[in-house]
Specification:
Distance between the termini: 28 Å
Order of helices and strands: HHHHHHH
Radius of gyration: 15 Å
Helix content: over 70%
Largest sheet: none
Number of strands: 0
Length: about 170
């Protein structure tokens, strides 16, 4: 077994536990919910097979759905993020970089990593809250939830990356 597989499995368990036990109970002003488990989908290496990213993201979303009582919301949105992550990552890495480049603020640079994370988080939150509401009746509340959850989660991810850098 590969060491990368064990690292990925450990990150999977930690992200699930933190999301389910702590972050699912945080709702700032009833609009902002941190979705730190999206960091799992953002952190895949450049050379990871696309089918493996999809399976890992679906499994992470399914685990969060089962314990959060959100049937299919996290798994659907995170699977879509896993689908577009390799293609977006290719836009942000230099062409002459190695195939196993790790997606982090240290390797991409803080600006590029922040933009990549913001795009993936925004897509996740947009899909998550769109599937949750399943209507555009209260679209202002929907946009506020999407924007505030994206910003809150981005702040948490950047905090983790700044700690990881050192």
């Amino acid at each position: 077994m590969s060491l990368d597989l064990f690292k990925r499995l450990g990150l999977f368990i930690i992200m699930c536990a933190v999301q389910i036990l702590i972050l699912n109970h945080i709702h700032l002003f009833d609009v902002a919910t941190p979705f730190l488990f999206v960091y799992f989908a953002i952190s895949f290496r450049r050379g990871t097979p696309k089918w493996a990213i999809l399976l890992w993201c679906f499994a992470m979303g399914l685990a969060v759905d089962v314990f959060s009582n959100t049937p299919g919301l996290a798994s659907g949105a995170l699977t879509f993020v896993g689908l577009i992550q390799p293609y977006l990552l290719e836009l942000f890495v230099p062409r002459d970089s190695t195939d196993d480049l790790e997606c982090s603020a240290a390797t991409l640079g803080t600006g590029k990593y922040t933009l990549l994370s913001f795009i993936l988080l925004f897509v996740f939150c947009l899909l998550f809250f769109m599937l949750e509401a399943f209507t555009f009746y209260n679209w202002i509340y929907w946009l506020i939830c999407t924007g505030s959850s994206t910003v809150l989660t981005l702040v948490l991810i950047l905090a983790i990356e700044s700690i990881r850098k050192k």
